[in-house]
């Protein structure tokens, strides 16, 4: 069963943090990542990627610095 969620229903202050395999990213980004296999993306409720960062802790810190509530998405 394919379940879809309305992530925007949780509010505009919520951002979503999810792991991203570096191998799945464009070469231009992979060249900047160095030795990491996984980085973390921060997305708004509409799914727009706001940032790519080195680790989950930094993603949560960045979100909170911008008065957002970070939530993990798998």
Write a structural description.
Helices cover 23% and strands 31% of the residues. The protein is of the alpha+beta class. The chain has one domain. Strands 3-2-1-4 form a 4-stranded mixed sheet, covered by helices on one side. The longest helix is centred in the C-terminal third of the chain and has 10 residues, at 56-65. It is elongated and about 35 Å long. The mean pLDDT is 87.
Largest sheet strand order: 3-2-1-4
Total count of strands: 4
Low-confidence stretches: none
**Major β-sheet annotation:** 4 strands, mixed
Mean pLDDT: 87
Q: What's the N-to-C terminus distance?
A: 17 Å
The chain-level structural class is alpha+beta
Q: What letter string, H or E per element, gives the SSE order?
A: EHEEHE
> Roughly what percent helix?
10-25%
